[in-house]
Amino acid sequence: MLRNFLIASLLLLTAACGPAEENNKASEGGLVYVHAGHLIDVEKGIVLDDQMIVISGERIVDVKPWTAEGAPSGVIDWSGYTVMPGMIDGHSHLLGDIQSEDPMAPLEGTRQDDIDMGVINALKTLKAGFTTVIDVGSYRVFSDVELRDKINAGEVPGPRMMVAGAYVTVPGGGGEVIGLDAGVDIPDEFRAGVAADADEVRERVRYLLDGGADFIKVIATGAVLTVGTDPGEPEFNEEEIRAAVEEAAKDGKYVTAHAHGAEGIKMAVRAGVRSIQHGSLADEEALQMMKEHGTWLVADIYNGDYIKEVGTAQGWPEETMRKNDETTETQRAAFRRAVAIGVNIAYGTDSGVYPHGDNAKQMPYMVRHGLTPMQAIQSATIWGARSMSLDKDVGSITSGKYADMIAVSNDVLNDVSVLENVNAVIKGGKLVP
Q1: Which ranges in the chain are annotated with CATH 3.20.20.140?
Q2: What is the mean pLDDT of residues 1-26?
């Protein structure tokens, strides 16, 4: 019954949006042309007026000033819009249902239920203008790999995905399903990343990479939303995090660390992780270390408000609400300081805690807490691409990159909240219906 409901929901979501008015009719000689009224060049941090974007297949082949004389006959007319690259969410969880008060929720559906919900979540995310997501973990091992592969094969619509395969976590740590009644059996597929020492970390990392993970996510400290863990306390030690980094490096892959507490952040930075997720309790030393090492900060600074409102209304555990209160404003203060001293910033929201498709609700928070509107957009485009070495393919509207772009009707640099309602999306040269 649940699967039938999910499939029906997907069909309704797709049908409700209707066909794109100019769906790939704007082609001439195998090329697609887009007339951009205003084009945000995120690499230079400037806005160009009246531009023509030329697309061949999935990729951009030219960007040049628009001239009406000699223009192709069928053009995607975005002359009344501001055009910018498709956005990147650097901290997403597409698989399964969103966060709830029930610790049993991850176990109640089947693997197929998780993937079916992931299909719905992926479409919502894509239609919201996020054409790439870094999916930083799901409880069921490789369910994210399966969804990514379905999207890549064209079986279902969705953003480009980089996936972690599963969380690498200590037994009973922030990446485990815990808080359950005694005697509840947790299937092995929920514990594929559990490791008790450096050798087991290497084994778990190798297993995940061999199974199709694009990068590795280690849970370096406790978590706000995992009952019984302390966000400020380290869970893996530096040697164990370094073991993950070294094993991933054998395949040219990176490690990102879930880390709220300052000591956990410092250990992760010294161990060589690519990015820190959350960073809620980062102190000055931790932030200065991140700047020195070039470590990226991916801070979900919208999430605390959502958790407070919805968690209170739905009766989420008292411990969760207390930890959320203890980390929300400290995270924002750390973010402001990180911006001020020049730490690398990438946009990431923890979507899956809040409803998918609302990813851009964090954008005004980025501005409120230190970034300029242009920098906030860069954090969700070119900076986000650089944070995971994806900038050869995505992150800007540049010749050679995938033709991933969005159109908005208002001045986004005057009010970044307009990104909460994008007017049109192109992914891989095709309008998203």
Answers
A1: 87-387
A2: 43
